Amino acid sequence: MNASRKPLFGFGLVVGAAFLWAVIPISLKKIGNTFDAYTITWLRFAVSAVLFFVFAYIQGEIKRLQKRDVWLMVLAGGGIGFNYVLYTLGIKFTTASAGNVVVNLEAVWLVILGRLWLKERIGGLKLAGTLITFAGVFAAIWTGDGFCALIKSKYFLGNMLIAACAPFWAIYGVGQKLLVERDVPVTATLAGIFAVAAVFVSPMVVAGYHINPPISTSVWIWMFVLIVPATLGSYLLMGKSLEFLDASSVAVASCILPVITILAARIFLDEMITSTVVMGALLVAVGMIITGRAEVDAAQS
């Protein structure tokens, strides 16, 4: 096996990130009636940026940033900023389980951008995994009653907002991968990316700022969970995984997320788990396994 690539370790990092990501829609449901979507998004980026910067500064990693890296951080930060605004709004109009399956359109977009921008190879197995992932996303939003019923569904608006955010997250993924390939420390890049994202979201916060006091202890606890493990921790693991995997493989591997989220939503939110959501989760999990097999084969060749 190529010593420079450790696909199994990389997939382990992605799975760890997925476990942390799984609590995001639950946290948003818990605090969504107290804080508006823009304020939530800004707090996630601003606090995470500060924490990443402090850590990177202590480790002496800020000094390794170069001027040529700035435009990539701006691109990635703008992409993830817009992605999270749409996602935070969308999750308010759909279920946590369906939302996390629909968001796996990000995997499809990142595979496409990985091929067009990063020139990553997409062999038969990886293509099959991508198509199965897309089928899982479609199953999650399909009501089974025809296209007209899908349009009228009470979850349609939320599903479409989340689907629309996918290409912007893929832009972030490409920018992060390019920075990793330049051997820029992950914590330093994430400090810059999240700072740009916070600046990007700031005008929306000013325009849509709304908080419903009083803020309970429970809300603050869920806010902490959202910012520290679910945002800072998950993106640190994902950024490290890009050192071992193609960007497209990271995206498809993260599709294990709905499997985890469906269980979490059932436990914490008492959401009903429909057969279409379960089918979608199973399909995206199969797509992840197939893509993982393709990545291992590539590393052994």
What would you say this structure looks like, in words?
Helix 1 runs antiparallel to helix 11 and helix 7 runs antiparallel to helix 14. The chain has one domain. By secondary structure, it is mainly alpha-helical. The mean pLDDT is 82. The chain starts with 6 loop residues before the first helix and ends with a helix. It is globular and about 60 Å long. The chain has 14 helices and no strands.
- The SSE order reads HHHHHHHHHHHHHH
Tally of extended strands?
Answer: 0
Question: Any idea what the shape is?
Answer: globular
Q: Main beta sheet, described? A: none
Task: Classify the secondary structure makeup into a structural class.
Answer: mainly alpha
Domain count: the total is: 1
* Average pLDDT, all residues: 82
Task: Please give the radius of gyration in angstroms.
Answer: 18 Å
- Percent in helix: over 70%
Unreliable residue runs: none
Termini Cα gap: 7 Å
Number of helices: 14
Strand content: under 5%
Summarize the structure.
The protein has helices spanning 7-21, 24-31, 37-58, 67-90, 96-102, 105-116, 124-141, 147-152, 156-181, 186-208, 217-241, 247-253, 257-268, 275-300. It is mainly α and 301 residues long. The protein has one domain (8-300).
Helices and strands in order:
Layout: H1 7-21, H2 24-31, H3 37-58, H4 67-90, H5 96-102, H6 105-116, H7 124-141, H8 147-152, H9 156-181, H10 186-208, H11 217-241, H12 247-253, H13 257-268, H14 275-300
Helix pairs in contact: 1-11, 2-11, 3-4, 3-10, 3-11, 4-9, 4-10, 5-13, 6-7, 6-9, 6-12, 7-14, 13-14
